[in-house]
Design goal:
Largest sheet: none
Order of helices and strands: HHHHHHHHHHHHHH
Number of domains: 1
Oligomer: single chain
CATH superfamily: MetI-like
Strand content: under 5%
Length: about 325
């Protein structure tokens, strides 16, 4: 009876623990749904007036009451993707050096300095961008030959404020997140992976490549986390991007992002439609963030599933070979 009583109390405790943790998970889902509902409610006037054309319109004119989100969507995605292209190889290089090649005396200081970058406020990054990065970008633009400046990618006034400055600031802000996750993932790779590579005659570079391949799912997850961080950055980007709501492929042209236009114009909204359009910009950013995170989770799931299938196939192939060898 005592044993059954203990089992019953243990089962009820487990059930209570599962229900409690489930409530917390549902609470998180409820917060996301509440944010979406609130944004949709406050943006309803703009949704009714512009419909889906709000996503594709390039006009942003508060005086005439015409609003479109396409320049801000373009600027947000362009700056974030460009920052990701700059930050990803640097982040992986930092993670590989710290996890695989750094001397022990340097490892902890490098980890501390890398993670310290994530603690710096974005306004400080913005000030550094204005006083250091913008003049550097301006000097790069003015030093380009006239032939290069005629190309659409490098056209624009030599202001220094523009897409390249914003992408560089975002890349620096993304690096600590991506490199920290990549470093921890590399540290969790079993030593047998590297030892097996060395046993097959691999060099150190090839062994590190094998570890990177084993940890690719976690590294991609860190890259996508950095991408989500770049999508929502506000103050640092606002201070260096130029804040011009026009679509341009140029790296030097002043442009705009969704978070920046909300921060700049929310207090200046003179009528209800203007305010509703700004809230709908927030709803668009919220939707794009959800889509990006969902696609990243789908990518990670597909990579994990393919690796499991390949491992299972290898096991199934190895078992008949082992049986034939034993029979022989």
């Amino acid at each position: 009876m005592g044993q059954r009583g203990k089992q019953g109390s243990s089962g009820s405790a487990d059930l209570g623990f599962r229900i409690g943790t489930g409530v917390f998970a549902l609470f998180l889902i409820g917060i996301v749904c509440a944010i979406g509902f609130l944004l949709t409610r406050d943006a309803w006037l703009s949704i009714q007036k512009f419909g889906l054309g709000f996503w594709g319109s390039q006009v942003w004119n508060p005086v005439s009451g015409e609003f479109g989100a396409l320049p801000f969507i373009w600027g947000t995605l362009y700056s974030s993707v460009l920052a990701l292209l700059i930050a990803t190889p640097i982040s992986i290089g930092i993670a590989v050096f710290i996890a695989e090649m750094s001397p022990a005396v340097l490892r902890q200081p490098l980890v501390f300095l890398t993670e310290l970058l994530a603690a710096i406020p974005s306004i400080v990054y913005g000030l550094w961008g204005i006083f250091v990065l913008v003049p550097a970008v301006r000097s790069i633009e003015t030093s380009l030959p006239d032939v290069a400046r005629r190309l659409p990618l490098f056209s624009g006034p030599p202001l220094g404020l523009g897409m390249l400055a914003a992408a560089l600031v975002l890349a620096i802000m993304v690096i600590p997140f991506t490199s920290s996750i990549a470093r921890e993932v590399l540290k969790s790779v079993p030593a047998a992976q590297r030892e097996g590579a060395y046993a097959l005659g691999a060099t150190r570079l090839e062994a590190i490549r094998a570890a990177l391949f084993y940890a690719r799912t976690g590294i991609i997850g860190g890259v996508m986390l950095g991408f989500g961080r770049a999508l929502g950055e506000t103050m640092a980007v606002t201070m260096v991007i130029g804040n011009n709501p026009r679509i341009s492929a140029s790296l030097f042209a002043p442009q705009h992002t969704m978070a920046a236009v909300i921060a700049n114009e929310f207090t200046e909204a003179a009528d209800q439609l203007y305010l509703s359009a700004l809230v709908e910009i927030g709803l668009v950013l919220f939707t794009i963030t959800l889509i990006v995170n969902s696609l990243s989770r789908l990518l990670i799931w597909s990579m994990t599933r393919s690796s499991r299938v390949s491992v299972a196939g290898s096991v199934e192939t190895a078992e008949p070979l082992a049986a034939e060898t034993a029979a022989g």
